[in-house]
Every structure is written in C-alpha cells, then in structure tokens.
UniProtKB/TrEMBL annotation:
Pfam families, alphabetized: MipZ
Domain of life of the organism encoding this protein: Bacteria
InterPro entries (UniProt xref): DNA_Partitioning_ATPase, MipZ, P-loop_NTPase
SUPFAM superfamilies linked to this entry: P-loop containing nucleoside triphosphate hydrolases (SSF52540)
Protein name (record): ATPase
Entry-linked CDD domains: ParAB_family
Source organism phylogeny: Bacteria, Pseudomonadati, Pseudomonadota, Alphaproteobacteria, Rhodobacterales
C-alpha cells in the first residue's frame, strides 16, 4: 500500500502547494514512485504548478523528475450508492487508482474546510500542516488568552484532525504522524519567533504533533512557480553556482525530509 502524505491547513497562503511540490519532486528524484492529487478544485495551485513544469520541460527539451499528477475523476450521481457522498467517491476512486502502483500519494488540500479535505485527513499516514510564523495562523491550532497568552484549548482545525484520528482508530489503521512546519520565517522579529516556538512546543505536547523546520521567506519561491521548478532543479536549468540563499533553502528542504522520517526515504542532496 502507498504511504499517504496529506498537506493541510484551513488558511490560505501558508505555503501548502510549495511544500507539496518540493516534497513530491524530491521523492521522485530519490527514485520513489509518487502520485499527486490537488483537492482545491477551484484554484488548483499544485495542479497548475505541475502543468507549468510540464510546459517548461517541453519548451526546453528537459526531462525533470515530477510526480504523476491526476485530477479527481468525474462521477455521475446516478452511479452512487444510496446515501453515498459524491466527494467521498471521487477521492476514494482517485486514491485507489494510485495505491497499487505508487510508493507515496501526496494530497494537497485547499485552504478551507471542505468535505474532500476532511476525508483526506482521515486517509493520512503523514499529515503536514504548514503554518506561517505568526500568532494569526497559530489561532488555527489553538485558542489563546489575550491577557497572558495561555493556551485555552484546541481550535477548529485541531478538532478536525482529532476527528480524523478517531476515524482511523475505529478502522484499525495506524495513527496519523502529524507534523506542523513553521514557514515564512523571517530573519528579524526574534522575540516573536521565540514566542511562537515556545507556544508550538507547549501545544505539540498537548494535542500531539511534531514541529519541523519549514521554509524561510525567500524571493526564489515566487520565481520558481511560473516555470514549475523546485530548488533541486536549479543546476539542471543552467544555474552553475547557487547563491547562499539557494543553498540555505535546499538545506531547509533536506531538514524537513529528515524530520518527516518517511518510510524508506534517505535524503541524498
């Protein structure tokens, strides 16, 4: 069976698609068979990222590693069993089609609460939640007292993950390995960074997730998307010498993959 990686966060702009693209292509580069699904049926950020990659490769005559991206299949309502949810059938059919032929299936979720996202979380062997390094985004995970910063309790997204864990337990499946990554880390605002680190550490012990290094705020990520490129492709497209920012960003990706500790994966870059 394929190991299912779900990248989820109910807020947009946290770097889900960037994270999804870099992890999935890195796994392919390391020789793993990877399928990819994008559950944001409107924006399709991951889908467009991969389409941009295919177009750039065709134009430049390149053969860059990329996951096997699939759109969710269309299902006629008349084909549904009585009481069956259309979105449940669409995602289960897509996953089943990839399951027998892939080592990993990466699912990129939309930045909102949807039925597709809810189902995907219950399928996750590994759940990655990219989080902007801000207490505005921290609110997604927990409610915090405005007076003293004390954690009052889990927020809506954490409760959804808890429900997904309960569904998996009832089905006799292994527990979700939940990893929260801190994205868009800035070089400044050291006091805020320390407060965020402390708050996440406390919350991780309370609701059960691991904290992993994410990606710092870098211009390079905005420049890569139109060509569908990742940090690992720069030398393949003629960049002979990486600048210090690019080298640091590659190290961040390696550190993330090491922390994820996916089965059979040893980062070699």
């Amino acid at each position: 069976m394929a190991h299912i990686i779900v990248v989820g966060n109910e807020k947009g702009g946290s770097g889900k698609s960037t994270t999804s693209m870099h992890i999935s292509t890195a796994l392919v580069r390391m020789g793993h068979r990877v399928g990819a699904l994008d559950l944001d049926l409107r924006q399709r950020s991951l889908g467009r990222y991969i389409e941009n990659r295919k177009a750039f490769c065709n134009a430049q005559g390149l053969d860059l590693a990329m996951p096997d991206y699939r759109d969710l299949p269309e299902i006629e309502r008349g084909d549904l069993a009585e009481g069956e949810n259309l979105f449940d059938r669409r995602i289960s059919t897509a996953v089943a089609a990839l399951d027998g032929e892939k080592d990993f299936i990466l699912i990129d979720c939309p930045g909102s609460h949807t039925r597709l996202s809810q189902v995907a979380h219950s399928l996750a062997d590994t759940l990655i939640t990219p989080l902007n390094d801000s207490f505005v985004d921290f609110d997604l995970l927990a409610r915090v007292s405005p007076e003293d910063g004390k954690i009052l309790g889990p927020s809506v997204y954490s409760e959804m993950v808890w429900s997904a864990r309960q569904i998996r337990a009832q089905a006799g499946l292994p527990p979700i390995d939940w990893i929260v990554t801190r994205n868009r880390l800035g070089a400044q605002q050291m006091i805020n960074k320390k407060k965020m680190a402390s708050a996440l550490e406390k919350l991780s012990k309370r609701i059960g997730f691991r904290v992993a290094p994410g990606f710092s705020e870098r211009v390079i990520f905005r420049e890569l998307f139109p060509r569908g490129l990742t940090l690992l492709d720069l030398k393949d497209v003629g960049v002979e010498r990486l600048n210090l920012s690019n080298v640091a960003a590659r190290q961040e990706l390696r550190d993330l993959l090491v922390t994820l500790d996916l089965p059979g994966v040893t980062p070699d870059f």
